[in-house]
Amino acid sequence: MSARTSVMGVLCCLLLALVLVVTTPQVSRADVATSTLQQSIDDTNNKIKQLQNEIAQLQSQLTTTTSQKQTLQSAINALNLNIQKLQKSVSLTQTQINQKDKQIATVSTSIATTTSEISLSREEVAQSLRELDQLDNEPLGIALLTGASLSDFFDQATTLEALRNGIHQTISNLSTLKDSLLTAKQAAEQKRQELASLKQNLSSQQQGLSATKTSQTQLLTQTKNKESEYQKIIAQKKAQEAQFESDLQDFEAQLNLTFNPSSLPSTGSGALLWPLASVRITQYFGNTEFATANSQIYSGHGHNAIDLAASIGTSVLAARGGVVVGTGNTDTTCAGASYGKWVFIKHDNGLSTLYAHLSVIKVAKGDSVAAGGTIGLSGETGYATGPHLHFSVMASAGSEIASFPSKSCIGKTYTMPVADQTAYLNPLSYLPAVPKR
Questions:
Q1: What is the C-alpha end-to-end distance of the chain, expressed in Å?
Q2: Residues 202 and 82 in one domain
Q3: Mean pLDDT split into 10-residue runs, the chain, 437 residues
Q4: d(CA 70, CA 194)
Q5: ∠ CA(422), CA(271), CA(301), 5° rounding?
Q6: Entry pTM
Q7: Domain range for residue 167?
């Protein structure tokens, strides 16, 4: 075989390999395999938008209902609206999870196709390069003796070098594509894990809501569905709350807990995060209008926290990483008089935070929590005139968990977070600016 014939044969092999690498329809093949999935993904996107709109409408109705005068009927209406909202949210999350499943399947198909084509192309090109290497080692004199001209030889050499560079570039491009597809798959799988976690959280919210609905049913039984009986219960709760505040203040006055103000973070530093994903303040810290109007409860000391609107079952988030100092439920001591279900967390910056009126507690004493991690679900346990989150910030050195007797429920003892009056801090001093609605 002449050198000219050998070179041309190799050229043919290389051209065939390059054609295979460049023109193998990895994209079109993937498109064919995933066209049905893509259509399904598009349909799912439309369903997601529809569910999001329905949830927004229910939230609007819920906000209006909860702002109305507290009556038995308004409480029932708010509960029913919240049930519908949670059911829609669960459906939305499941739909999003299904969507991610389909996206992962699409990406996985593309990855498999690309990987196979890279492997095949590498094998074909490797064989061609071995033949090229053999040609490269063939002396020029031998090629000329077999009849090839010097011009032909250099033309072919130039062509071979261009083809070699093209093949290497194509392989590099395919490898890059594979890497990007793997990255996309990892991102999609991570998103799916996040959504699965969200679904689990929503299921927990439904459990909390179910428990609250049971409590509401018991209330209806107690009131015989009469508004007058319901208002008597509300009045009784207010009286118990006033007695509790008096008990708490008397006990805290004796604590003699001291702290160094310089050990606290500077105000306005954003040392804490909001404990809810959506923020609407319903009562501020200190001598608010509500605290002043209810002096029999606050005794002039003002509100020692901020209250945030939160329908039952809303995820409550740790405002900063820290350690759970304790959890509890004051309703087991005196129902409807105080914090209800609470979580108390000590942080690394001299601050501690209290989350009260929860429906579900999802952490335990000694747990380490991350900033933004779910620690419970909102509710209206304890003394609450409606579902909300009571959020207190205290100087860690001036606060602790302690026990003291209840005067409104004789013979019972509260165990809960307490603090020197000066250790209660305005949460807004350490939180980011209130998000614009």
A1: 82
A2: yes
A3: 46 45 47 69 89 91 84 85 87 87 81 77 70 60 54 62 71 76 81 82 75 74 85 84 83 84 86 94 75 43 86 92 97 90 97 96 96 93 89 94 89 92 91 84
A4: 37
A5: 25
A6: 0.72
A7: 3-210
